[in-house]
Amino acid sequence: MSGDATTSPAAAVPAPQLQSRLTCPACGHARTETMPTDACQWFYACTHCGELLRPKPGDCCVFCSYGSVACPPVQAEGRGCCG
Ligand SMILES: [Zn+2]
Fold first, then answer.
1. 15-27 CB burial, b ≥16 within 10 A, e <16
2. How far is the CA of 38 from the centre of ligand 1 (A)?
3. Most-buried pick from 30, 54, 61, 73 (CB within 10 A)?
4. DSSP at 83
5. Which distant-in-sequence residues (6+ apart) come within 8 Å of 51 by Cβ?
6. Residue 7 pLDDT more than 70?
7. What is the distance in A from the centroid of ligand 1 to the CA of 82?
8. 62 C-alpha to center of ligand 1: Å?
9. How far is the CA of 73 from the centre of ligand 1 (A)?
């Protein structure tokens, strides 16, 4: 026991960031959401104004269009699950 509190395996591929800050294009409200790693999220209802966000053309999910961080598949491979 050496007392290491935060040891992480030295992987070649960095772990994808799962928290993305979604900004509503209608009202500008931003909220940090956790992204699913196994599926793309196509719809997101703004918690402030209720606007239903959809991916822009060419984007695979709402996080790619409106989030501060691209979705996990894009982080890992540079493209979305449907790209
Ligand atoms: Zn909104």
1. eeeeebebbbeee
2. 26
3. 61
4. -
5. 24, 25, 26, 27, 45
6. no
7. 26
8. 13
9. 26
CA 18 – ligand 1 centroid, Å: 21
* Higher per-residue pLDDT: 51 or 4: 51
Selection from 16, 17, 13, 44 nearest residue 31 by Cα: 44
DSSP state of 13: S
Domain ranges of the chain: 18-70
| 50-65 average pLDDT score | 94
Query: Average pLDDT, stretch 53-63?
Result: 93
pTM of the model: 0.76
Ligand 1 mean position to 63 CA, how many Å? Answer: 15
Distance 22 CA to ligand 1 centre (A): 10
